[in-house]
Amino acid sequence: MRTLEDIQEEYEFLEGDERYRLLIELGRELDDMPAALKTDATLVRGCSASVWVYPTEESGALHFLADSNAAITKGIVALVISAVQDKPAQTVAEMDVTAALEPFDLKNQLSSNRTQGVPNMIGLVKEHAARLASA
């Protein structure tokens, strides 16, 4: 998975539909999430499309599996996940993910339907990180 910095560098050179294509491409790059993990427990509430996020921990770092049933939403999920992927749980728990995503100006780039679940997704990611950090 690309780093958030790499994505931002590419994103800044793009406009309009090209940015949508980049988001769709990012969504395709997510690790496959097994259907068995797409449950009510991993479903992110408040998203206009179905979004699932499942945390794992590998060598002290958080690794998320995520998916969505909508291509652009899946790209937004990938963007959020790229901000926290493979970082220590404590780092993610303390991180301002919203600030990390500000350069992408998602609220002005995408419809409110596409971005309404982003705060809930960030909240879920940080909740998982805090739980794993305190374990």
Structure, described:
The mean pLDDT is 90. A hairpin with a 2-residue loop joins strand 1 and strand 2. This protein has a two-stranded antiparallel ribbon with strand order 1-2. The protein is mainly α and 135 residues long. It is built from eight helices and two strands. The chain has a single domain, classed as Sufe protein. Chain: A, CATH 3.90.1010.10.
Distance between the termini: 27 Å
- Major beta-sheet overview: 2 strands, antiparallel
CATH architecture: Alpha-Beta Complex
Instruction: Kindly provide the name of the CATH class.
Output: Alpha Beta
What's the helix and strand layout?
Blueprint: H1 4-12, H2 16-28, E1 51-58, E2 61-68, H3 71-84, H4 89-94, H5 97-101, H6 106-109, H7 112-115, H8 118-134
Features:
12% strand; 8 helices; mainly alpha; Sufe protein. Chain: A; Fe-S_metab-assoc_dom; 135 residues; two-stranded antiparallel ribbon; single chain
Q: TL;DR of this structure?
A:
This protein has 135 residues and is mainly alpha-helical. 53% of the residues lie in helices and 12% in strands. The chain has a single domain (4-134), classed as Sufe protein. Chain: A (Alpha-Beta Complex).
